[in-house]
Amino acid sequence: MGLNSFDAVAGPRPQDVLPESASVAVKIVVVGGFGVGKTTLVGAVSEIAPLTTEETMTQAGAGVDDLFGVEEKSATTVAMDFGRISLNDRLVLYLFGTPGQQRFWFLWNGLFEGALGAVVLVDTRRLESCFDVLGRLEEGGVPFIVAVNQFPDAPQHSLEDIRLALDLSPDVPLVGADVRHREAGRDVLLALLRRLHTLAQPLEAR
Ligand SMILES: Nc1nc2c(ncn2[C@@H]2O[C@H](COP(=O)(O)OP(=O)(O)O)[C@@H](O)[C@H]2O)c(=O)[nH]1
Ligand SMILES: [Mg+2]
User: Which family does it belong to (predicted)?
Assistant: First the structure.
């Protein structure tokens, strides 16, 4: 099965067809609390029309989903986001964004299967919303980086303070980004790839 078989999802537009040279496909998962910008990140970087399962939040979510700071948000991802980005002629990333709300955690089963790494998005207004996610990644041994999605009205903290607040180990990369912008989103993904590359080296060479 060639890599292009994935394109059945998006249809046969010319830009959807991968170059013949594409030979490495990597699965990356984008996780984080509610409203941190997962769908935005996948949409900003994806070169295929991102597949997103947004559903208007129902009363069922009222009082359960923490809307603090994202009051205008009326849709939430119930299944996941899917996108694709070719980082160069050979390397293609498949992005899977998944909801951070606990009630959707059954979707996590299998999501990390075959995933090389994860991007954890955080919002400084609700840092605690990623604690569970970080715990699950650590438990599962999935390599990850943390990207702080800076919202204009969010408190400005130094990355060092955020690292302390999240109790991140010093070797986990922590970057700032405005994931609405393609370049910023791409830089986040590149930071994860650098991390994966480092982890692939023998300890003494890191
Ligand atoms: N100002 C600002 N707004 C953002 C940013 N990223 C996402 N948003 C907005 O925040 C809301 C939630 O983002 P969304 O991607 O749906 O969050 P998700 O629940 O993690 O998928 C949307 O209205 C986005 O337009 C950002 O970097 N800056
Ligand atoms: Mg979403």
Answer: Belongs to the GPN-loop GTPase family.
